[in-house]
Amino acid sequence: MKSLQARYGPDSIAVLNPGRIFTEELALLGSLFKFGMGGRHGDIVAGPCPETGSHSVSRSCTANRSHPFANTTSLLGGRDFARPEHREAVARILGIPVQRIPQENSWAQDRILEGIGNGTIRGLWIVATNTFSSWIRHWALNLGAEKLDFLVVQDRYAAPDLTRRAHLVLPSAGWGEKEGTLISSPHHIAVVKKVRRAPGDSLSDFDIFKLIASGWGCSDLFRKWQSPESVFQILKRLSAGQTCDLTGIRDYRHLDEAGGIQWPYSSADAEAEDQRADRTLTPSSTTRRPAETGEPKNFWFSPVNSPSGF
């Protein structure tokens, strides 16, 4: 990838993924590619909506293309790459040089596929998707794949129709073999727990991205991105005051105990929730409030924040 950039320019490489990896992995991938590797063109590919659980449904999950933390067609937190104040805000929160952040927005999926066809895009990194079974415009890539100088496929299984074209295959872990959060299009966020080790040489996408950052020589930019949960705390800071505000969510334990939370959920929302809970808990003649007894406080969730619905 570095040699392609040296020969054809920094915009000669691209990354595509379906938005089905965890939120923290999406953020690390987009940040690594744009801030660390110096790429610009990346998008979340349009395919059948993951909430349906079946590729037989023709409706594409277009909401995923605007994922607020993917750092693909929009800057982290739902910001705009083209606005200087947005780039400065992200650079300040992440503690990175603002010059690392591209000043132009990425091409969308269709333009990237056109770039592969006309030779503008020479290197492609595909993460967590099989183009033949999940892409609406899979034929466009299948026709142009032979023109790529370097194709990287990162997935949890080896799809022969795609990996046979790849110059490098990176085996990744699947759900239940890693941890992180998922954001669904109905605006719910929930935590997914690791229940078993990934088989063979597979690694979580998060760990793969960290290793690539180290190999590329840009790991210093992500020294605070130590684990998915530490990244979640970074994303909270990036979300403050934005339409995707998550500052009211304390941590993974909070998400787990709530069974998922509808967002945006700001710190002000959380404070109002606590106040409503306090008013609901009225003491009787024989019992005392939890705060007085030292017992855990019971939180009553409103329908907006109901655990059901994720």
Helical content band: 25-40%
Q: Please provide the count of β strands.
A: 8
The Cα radius of gyration reads 21 Å
Report the structural category. alpha/beta
Strand line-up in the sheet with most strands: 2-1-3-4-5
The chain-level mean pLDDT equals: 83
Q: Order of SSEs, N→C?
A: HEHEHHEHHEHEEEHHHEHH
Describe the structure.
Strands 2-1-3-4-5 form a five-stranded parallel beta sheet, with helices on both faces. A three-stranded antiparallel beta sheet has the order 6-7-8. 34% of the residues lie in helices and 12% in strands. It has a single domain (2-239), classed as 3-Layer(aba) Sandwich (Rossmann fold), CATH 3.40.50.740. The chain has 310 residues and is α/β, with parallel strands linked by helices. α2 runs parallel beside α8 (205-216) and α4 runs parallel beside α6. β6 and β7 (188-192) form a beta hairpin. The protein has helices spanning 2-8, 23-36, 84-94, 109-118, 131-134, 138-144, 160-163, 205-216, 228-239, 252-258, 267-280, 290-293; strands spanning 13-17, 41-44, 123-127, 150-155, 168-171, 180-184, 188-192, 261-262. The chain is built from twelve helices and eight strands.
Keywords:
310 residues; alpha/beta; Rossmann fold; three-stranded antiparallel beta sheet; 12 helices; 12% strand; disordered C terminus
Question: What can be said about this structure in brief?
Answer:
This protein is of the alpha/beta class. It has one domain: Rossmann fold. Helices cover 34% and strands 12% of the residues.
